[in-house]
Amino acid sequence: MAAALKTFSWEGTEKSGRKSKGEIKSATAKVARADLRKQGIAATKVTRQGGGMMALLNSGAKIKPQDIALFTRQLATMMKAGVPLVQSFEIVADGMDNPSMRDLILQIRDDVSSGNTLTHAIEQHPAHFDDLFCSLINAGEDSGSLETMLERLATYKEKSEALKAKIKSAMTYPISVLVVAGVVSAILLIKVVPQFEEIFRGFGAELPEFTQLVVNMSNWMQVYWFAIVAAIALLIFIYKEIHKRSLAFRDGVERLTLKVPVIGDIMDKSCVARFARTLSTTFAAGVPLVDALESVAGAAGNVVYRQAIFKIKDEVSSGIQLNIAMKRQEVFPNMVIQMVAIGEESGALDGMLDKAATYFEEMVDNAVDGLTSLMEPMIMSFLGVVIGGLIIAMYLPIFKMGDAIGGG
Question: What is residue 324's predicted lDDT score, i.e. its pLDDT?
């Protein structure tokens, strides 16, 4: 059965040198490029169209770290199967749902096709491939074991992103619930309470203190709700701008995060897991320990650990053992230090670090699950108090009126 034809948008240069663009129907992007060459057009960009609203939504899709992890895993699989590098790019690109990621892969392919190394090609896109990624690819190319290095990198990226996603979900859940509670409360105060207030006026009796308090809050919200929303939006904007522009502010936030009860412990363990996982990957790739520590510091994720790792790097450079340098910083757990010491003595440092990373990743998973289980009843209780309190305040005068009628 013939492959279903897809519509591709293309941009390119005609034989006369004139730039042009258009659409072409073909089975794959590779076949589309071949068809265009037959027409005398050198295609510089071929993008598959998704069609309709989905194409419009995907056209400006951002490239996420998960996309890079998926690309690395698929490229490693292709090369391990013996597929040539350039052809691997085309196969992986054709299977990508994100058009931006597809374009990025094709740009890298074109760069490699023109005779450049893969390291040079990915270094042209620093927004998506950090120094650590580039260093490991370079080490793989220099040692002639690129497919093995890609596999290690894929495992590293997948585990790192899984850890980040776990922590992000732990933070997002309570925040989203609190936001929903705030919105529902605001709607009740602005839209629902005034309706009850009109009914209460007809009673001609004095309202209970709790009900009067809610009515006063409603009156205040009706007047100032726009100012409150504007103030919240302004505070969020100011925070983001300061966070983006001020290194001292970011460092202060990261230090404070480690001191927050429960959350700080999770962040602590995640930093240790990231340190062990990154150092294990780089050291196993044959990167010298001092250079590996430089890359690890950049991937630490917290200023406290980043500064500690830089100090460790300086001490290791002067001939001090890694485990002793780690112990002097007083930020790493004794278990990790002992495992590093055993690894240094046995010559299996990368293996011991890998085991330490796996252990602490599991600890983070368990801590996040425990936090979620702990917060669910607390959040439900909070919602019950806030929403339930507003409802009780509205019905309290009606209950009192019923008691008065019953007593009469």
Answer: 93
**Could you report the per-residue pLDDT of 53-90, keeping only the tens digit for each?**
444 444 456 888 888 989 999 998 888 888 888 888 98
What pLDDT is recorded for position 56? 40
Can you tell me the distance from the alpha carbon of 165 to that of 146, in angstroms, rounded to the nearest whole number? 28
**pLDDT, tens digit, 9 for 90 and up, residues 235-292:** 999 999 998 888 889 889 889 988 888 788 888 888 898 899 888 888 887 888 888 8
Instruction: Write the CA distances from 302 to 206, 268, 328, 378, integer angstroms.
Output: 57, 9, 18, 29
Give the number of C-alpha atoms closer than 13 A to the C-alpha of residue 75, restricted to the C-beta side.
26
CA distance 232 to 221: 14
Cα 257 from Cα 243, distance rounded (Å): 14
Query: What residues contact residue 342 under an 8 Å CB cut-off, 6+ apart?
Result: 352
CA distance 86 to 35: 19
For residue 52, the model assigns a pLDDT of 46
- What is the Cα–Cα distance from 72 to 237, expressed in whole angstroms? 35
Spatial distance between the Cα atoms of 353 and 147, rounded to a whole number of angstroms = 22
Q: Alpha carbon of 332 to those of 274, 279, 338, 359: distances in Å?
A: 12, 14, 10, 14
Torsion of CA 71, 77, 78, 79, to 10 degrees: 110
Q: What is the pTM of this model?
A: 0.66
Tokens of 321: 């053992």
User: DSSP letters along 121-162, please?
Assistant: HHHT-TTTS-HHHHHHHHHHHHHT-HHHHHHHHHHHHHHHHH
Asked whether the predicted pLDDT for residue 2 surpasses 50, the reply is no
Residue 211 in this model has a pLDDT that exceeds 60: yes
Check if the beta carbon of residue 337 is closer than 8 Å to that of residue 253: no
Q: How far is CA 35 from the centre of its chain?
A: 39
CA distances from 180 to 190, 232, 379 (A): 15, 15, 11
Report how far residue 217's alpha carbon sits from residue 393's, in angstroms, rounded to the nearest whole number.
12
The single-letter DSSP state of residue 206 is: P
Cβ atoms 32, 70 nearer than 8 A: no
